[in-house]
User: What shape does this take?
Amino acid sequence: MGAVSLPPPEIRENVPLAPLTTLGIGGPARFFVEALEERAVAGALVFAEERQAPVFVLGGGSNILVADEGFPGLVIRMAMAGITESADPRSPDLARWTAGAGEGWDDLVRRAVQCGLAGIECLSGIPGTVGGTPIQNVGAYGQQVAGVITAVRVWDREARCALELDNTGCRFSYRQSVFNTTARDRHVVLSVSYALTRGGAPALEYADLRKFFAGCDHAPGLPEVRAAVLAIRARKGMVIEPGDPDCRSAGSFFKNPVVSGSDCEAMAQATGGPVPSYPVAGDSRRVKVPAAWLIEQAGFRKGYSRGPAAISGKHALALINRGGASAADVIALMREIQAGVRDRFGVDLLPEPQFIGFQQRPAADSADSTD
Ligand code: NAP
Assistant: This one.
């Protein structure tokens, strides 16, 4: 860290992680720090380095499965708050909002919609924090954050300094960025800047949304589209409702596989009906098949349970903790579903959440699947 003098970080020990995750599962963090400001991140990293402890950066805990044994290193919980507005030099129609990594994502969307700013309204109801959004280029219902992010301020663990990446430097693609591919674990996201359009029209591209407004006698505004997305997500158990175990999940547990046209044909023959599929941008030979459809076609109905771990009663893609489930219970259910889909269709479903603290990663990752 050179000559920079840092305050000693307020490190706690053996802090339970389960309450900090949406699945409510997992053991404690050996060391834990809540980072309220940028300097706390730098200080915490020095602490971990001195002990050669692994580091995990925690946001909203909405896309992770923590091992029952917990995490043997330092967890840095990003709690930097604050939203500031500045002019965007490209156009007076654009407002640039910069938000601390610890800001709740849906709070930001709600405030943007209230202010009449378009660009993220379809990303309503997504749990987690601002800092998590550039990592996997969060997207839903036809919008993705790559479309509005102008800059991401990060702590670079190699260069040991804070720096800013512009949109191009983030190398966004479908659910991917430099942060979860070529420079995985190198950066800690400190804040994110978004360019939002004053008085812009809401995006109404996806069938679910259009169906919602079918018969509507006027063009829906931003608040109506936000309300529609929240309603659609709630029907699928994808909005966190405190106390509803059907929502105690890590969102979509599997990525939607991308398959060849002939694989899709084979699926149609196996099921005797049409296969729902969607085009993949930049890849005319392959299509995206909803993992939820594959899971149900393989015989796993919504609500299917294996002890305290289950498939949500609202969406086949969400694995839930019905109460008292362990990480091992969820892994066993994940493996059962993967084997069922593989047997029926020859397709490997890859998990979407990050696995934290497992001695052996429970499943291989691949660049071949999306979402
Ligand atoms: P869904 O709406 O049933 O869609 C399932 C899959 O079909 C998604 O991969 C979606 O692509 C694709 N799809 C649907 N309509 C499409 C269209 N008009 N053009 C191209 N592709 C289309 O999915 P869901 O599970 O209920 O999720 C709802 C939305 O939330 C989806 O957009 C999904 O991607 C998103 N989501 C995102 C994340 C994430 O960012 N990590 C996690 C969970 C869900 P797209 O993925 O391109 O939308």
